[in-house]
Design brief:
Layout lengths: L2 E7 L3 H12 L6 E7 L8 H4 L12 H9 L3 E4 L10 H7 L2 E4 L5 E2 L12 E3 H8 L16 E5 L3 H11 L12 H9 L4 E5 L11 H5 L7 E4 L2 H14 L7 H15 L7 E6 L2 E7 L6 E10 L2 E12 L2 E4 L3 E2 L8 E2 L2 E2 L10 E3 L2 H4 L7 H16 L22 H15 L12 H9 L1
Parallel strand pairs: 1-2, 1-4, 2-3, 4-18, 6-14, 7-8, 7-14, 8-10, 9-10
Antiparallel strand pairs: 5-15, 11-12, 12-13, 16-17
Helix pairs in contact: 1-3, 1-12, 9-10, 13-14
The structure holds NADP nicotinamide-adenine-dinucleotide phosphate (NAP).
The site of NADP nicotinamide-adenine-dinucleotide phosphate has 24 residues, from helix 6.
Length: 438
């Protein structure tokens, strides 16, 4: 029975759905040995270090990942970094196929003056900070000011704004990293603006995320109802047969409900600004003010009015999308791996954000993986009979195998239990490796 060896690089949702698609494609004639290679000692990618801690339901997909990992022929190689501990060319040589599921971890830049001032940071730093990613645990973020501005009208911006604006007691029973819970409890931020450069009708938020905002007990949320009314009229005038697409109608309705929701007079608030294009961040050594150009929508197009306004603020977080970190051995174009429907040259493939850019929800990776795995199987030749990759990784290197990850996982969950939390995360590589040793 021919068995093909597949390397999946990156243990996030795209990696696990790729492994699952391979497992589901097995027949009596075709079987796969899957090695999943991950830079961190912990798998699950954005499910661990991206999904907001107050969205625990989304994280239950990790049960699917663990089921995939329990299948015969699956091995985890955690704490193994491509380009450092192992080279892509060696993987391509030894495996029948390599699937790059390496995501996009770099925050896009605004490219405006003042962006590099202290306390102007990217969601690509802030999100992994509150989620306990070892690379960001020591992030220097000053929460002693009162006002924060989050740039972007997508779900990541929404997560960042909510995490800053909610009362941190709401995080006490979540898996937010301890350092972040402590910092957020001590935070003086009380007003959070979230700014989109286009109109409410163009916002990339999804309506479930909007609809949960009125449920925030300790935070008043402000939407300008006239702006939403105008957006609704504009959207209808642009719509085919005068009928809005379902998601847009639902978004605008969710915004209208928020605008009409009574304010409880909470000290904490979140306010949505639209048609606001960031032009400059100002401050003496640190963020003090942000200048926005005022846009308007003319015949469905967003144009600059030439007018500006400013918000005095102490913190700016940019959540305007991500790009992939370049990796030697594959070409990158516009922040993604250069690919044709997932084929990235030779026996290298790609799935997830590295393939299609930072779009879609976790489940989107399932169909993406299944499409690419179909092509990968079409391309398979006779299986290679090569030696194991463990030979390529230096003998002293600490590889976190599935059993060791399970010990880390169990220790974190056990630490959370008495505190009513799903887990207490270890936030440094050394801590994680020591948990894995039991
Ligand atoms: P996104 O949905 O693409 O939103 C990016 C936002 O940044 C857009 O509003 C975009 O505005 C804005 N933007 C881009 N360049 C800008 C600039 N130069 N100046 C000002 N604004 C700019 O990206 P995301 O929020 O990073 O989310 C990535 C993916 O993850 C999305 O598919 C999202 O739905 C998903 N996600 C889902 C959840 C969830 O399900 N709860 C949570 C987090 C993320 P324009 O539209 O004008 O370009």
């Amino acid at each position: 029975m021919p068995q093909y060896k597949i390397a999946v690089v990156g243990a996030g949702p795209a990696g696990y759905f790729t492994a699952q698609a391979l497992q589901n494609s097995q027949t009596e004639e075709l079987t796969f040995a899957i090695d999943m290679i991950e830079r961190l000692p912990t798998p699950w990618g954005l499910v661990r270090s991206g999904v907001a801690p107050d969205h625990p339901k989304i994280k239950t997909v990790s049960k699917v990942f663990e089921k995939v990992a329990a299948e015969p022929g699956f091995r985890l190689f955690g704490n193994v970094e491509l380009g450092k501990d192992i080279e892509l060319k060696d993987l391509a040589e030894r495996y029948d196929a390599v699937v790059m599921c390496t995501g996009s971890s770099i925050g896009k830049k605004l490219g405006i003056p003042g962006e590099d001032l202290a306390n102007s940071l990217s969601a690509a730093e802030f999100v992994p900070w509150y989620n306990g990613h070892p690379d960001y645990s020591d992030l220097d973020i000053d929460l002693s000011g009162k006002v924060a501005v989050v740039i972007g009208a997508g779900n990541v911006a929404m997560d960042c704004a909510r995490m800053l604006a909610l009362n941190p007691i709401e995080l006490d029973t979540t898996d937010t990293a301890d350092h972040a819970v402590n910092a957020l409890h001590a935070s003086s931020i009380r007003k959070v603006y979230i700014a989109g450069r286009r109109g409410p009708e163009h916002a990339a938020f999804t309506s479930p995320e909007l609809r949960e905002l009125p449920k925030l007990e300790h935070t008043d949320v402000y939407f300008d109802s006239d702006l939403i009314e105008d957006a609704h009229k504009r959207a209808i005038s642009q719509a085919e047969f005068g009928e809005l697409e379902k998601h847009l109608a639902s978004n605008l309705e969710a915004m209208r409900l928020i605008a009409e929701h009574p304010h409880a007079g909470n000290e904490r608030s979140m306010e949505f600004k639209f048609l606001s294009a960031p032009k400059e961040i100002r401050g003496e050594g640190k963020v003090e003010e942000i200048i926005f150009g005022i846009n308007q929508v003319v015949d469905g197009k967003v144009v600059d009015t030439g007018e500006t306004y400013s918000i005095k603020c102490d913190l700016v977080i940019t959540a305007i999308g991500y790009e992939s970190l370049p990796i030697q051995g594959v070409n990158f174009v516009k922040g993604k791996i250069d690919n044709n429907e997932g084929r990235a040259g030779g026996n290298i493939y790609t799935v997830g954000w590295a393939k299609r850019g930072p779009s879609g929800v976790i489940g989107t990776n399932k169909s993406d993986a299944s499409d690419v795995v179909k092509l990968l199987i079409e391309d398979l030749k006779s299986p290679k009979s090569t030696r194991d990759i463990t030979e390529l990784i230096s003998s002293g290197h600490h590889i976190v195998a599935q059993s060791e990850w399970q010990r880390i996982n169990a220790a974190e969950v056990a630490a959370g239990e008495p505190l009513g939390k799903p887990r207490v995360k270890a936030t440094s590589v050394a801590q994680l490796l020591s948990l894995g040793q039991g």
